[in-house]
User: What shape does this take?
Amino acid sequence: MSSKTVKCDLLVIGSGAAGMAAALKAASEGHSVIVAEKSQWLGGTTAISGGWAWVPGNKQGVAQGDTRQEIETYIRALAKDCYKAEMVDTFLDEVPEAIDWLERDTDVEFVYPEMAPDYQMDAPGAKPSGRAISGKVVDARTLGENRLRLRPYLDTYTVFGYMPEVGPDIAQFLHANQSWKSFAYVSKKLLKTWAETVLCRRSFDRTNGNSLMVRMVSSAAKLGIRMWTETPVTKILQSENGVVTGAVLGGVHAGTVEARLGVVIAAGGYSSDPALRAEYWGHDPHGDNHFTPTVGHDGDNVRLAAPLGGHVDTDVHEPAAWAPVTVFTGLRGQQRIFPHLRAFGLPGLIAVNRKGERFANESSSYHDFGMAMIQDNVGQNETFGYIIADSKAMNKYGIGYAKPWPIPQGYFKKTGFLHKAGTVEELALEIGVDVAGLKKTLAEFNAGAAKGEDPKFNRGSNWFHHFKGDMEHQPNPNLEPLDKGPYYAARSRWATSAPTRVWPSTGTARSSTTTTSRSPDSSPPVPRPSASSAAATRATAPTSGPPSSSDTPSAGTPRSSRRCGANPSRRPFWKRSDMPFFLVRYTYTGDTAGRDEHRPEHKSHLQAAADRGLILGSGPFAAGEEPGAAMIYEAAGKQDVVDVVDADPFRTHGFVASYDITEWIPMIGPWAVAAVGGRS
Ligand SMILES: Cc1cc2nc3c(=O)[nH]c(=O)nc-3n(C[C@H](O)[C@H](O)[C@H](O)COP(=O)(O)OP(=O)(O)OC[C@H]3O[C@@H](n4cnc5c(N)ncnc54)[C@H](O)[C@@H]3O)c2cc1C
Assistant: This one.
């Protein structure tokens, strides 16, 4: 594995919104910044998120008369005993300024929706709008070479490849099977998505969290920030007197980074780490009772911060943001997680427990619903509930991943995701829920729902509930009796959507991002956003550490006018190239089982290199040949090829007995002539 030392001012670990915001600010102040991202994609969980940010005190809220006192009252009502005045002050002081700065000095733009109710509309100080904002739709071609480096959408969340924008699109998609106008709207979106995907591998219009990350990454490229994917940070380095000096990196950019000002840990949370879940989450004592759609949240933040004195902050209202999910397992065993961030507040859907009883307001926020679900399952080995729908609701809205009419249900039933029965009794028996309990629940719920009321949980009683329902449904956007068979059920599990905080033991970090930096008597710290610093130019060049050949381009990189934007991987193979070609040949060890186990990682690693335009072709030797593989690379230099080969999981796990890399000059044959003009 190559081992090199690179210098910069600031090293940021993680390329989600937290890391990129820190990187953008530092780079805009003239500091040279490296963002190290362990995945092949940029954007983290943020890129698959809804992309809404709760930023009270923003310009829309202020214009509507929202006051600091009301905001504090609201936060106090939610945080209860965990209210920390100093942290709330810092948050409220700095967040509006940070949002203004992002909009003014970077490509980031937000939408300020007319309707974005607080999650707890019944709490004192709550507001129906003026606090939550969302990322503005963006054309991903603005990313140029980086377009396909951005993390794609969460596939369960897309509708045939299109990601409906939270807000305006949702209503249209909800009614596409009921109104010609909505059908036309949705068809147009889908046709555009499919055409762009066929021609350019991914649709251009990016929505929700993906749009936020497109905007951040495009700004980062303009500022010359080096964004290193497939580069996990494995250790933070300190001098003898405890000053952070840099970090050790693995993967494509394996080596050491010396960071003059410090290291920002923005590596997400630990919801994918069973051991940490078992340690910190009372409801998952064995680390086997949890699903998460988050990406890269493997607890590296905890492990990197611990040797520096970092600790997990347990003095919080809840250790994470909970959400119910349904888990779909395909016929070939592939697992897909559908987060129910709208909970189940649509008319005609309810959630019940093993006794057939409702245990929460289904139109409350996913976090509140998740908490209620955990509470209801105390003492059980598995945390789950069932979502029940009658045929009206199933045909109109579907249940999560199981789409509504006219999409056939056969596949969802065959995989065991969706249960269907002619009567309530039969459904209860099929899913193992108490028959009398479920019948009683439906009788009670239906009596209220017919009048637009829910005496048990007050579902559908405020703007937030309605926001999660179907606004066109009368008399209440959240309520409809379940009275028309057949009846349907899907099992709902429990998940996290947001990371847990890790704090320096004695530090003053003010967000879920931890900054470790040099001691006060060494170099000056990276400035936090401030009125004066915000005015800094965004075209400032990095002060040290020139980008490597696989870095992102700095400002002024020529933009291709090609249809798909400037992406080297889209250069058709017959177009001429000035870069050298390399032949790579692997000889494998006899560990076939090991290769089988790690093949998905190996393939995604090589695919990422292909997406970056490095690999033109790759594949194994045919059966009967000595086990191995061959690849053709096109790269600026041999080191770029070595970096990819060294980080290949087949190699890091020891399945490659030997390999060679040979620069190659194609001369004869139609491909050689077309590709390079038959170099001689
Ligand atoms: C489906 C879904 C919808 C959501 N919707 C919303 C919403 O609308 N509003 C909201 O506020 N929140 C939402 N959330 C939660 C929100 O997405 C996260 O809280 C947020 O994105 C976290 O940002 P981050 O930058 O801290 O982490 P991330 O965006 O996850 O970035 C962390 C990055 O660090 C990388 N990393 C980890 N370890 C290392 C290492 N050792 N070296 C290098 N890189 C490393 C990871 O690969 C990852 O890319 C949603 C979550 C989900 C799953």
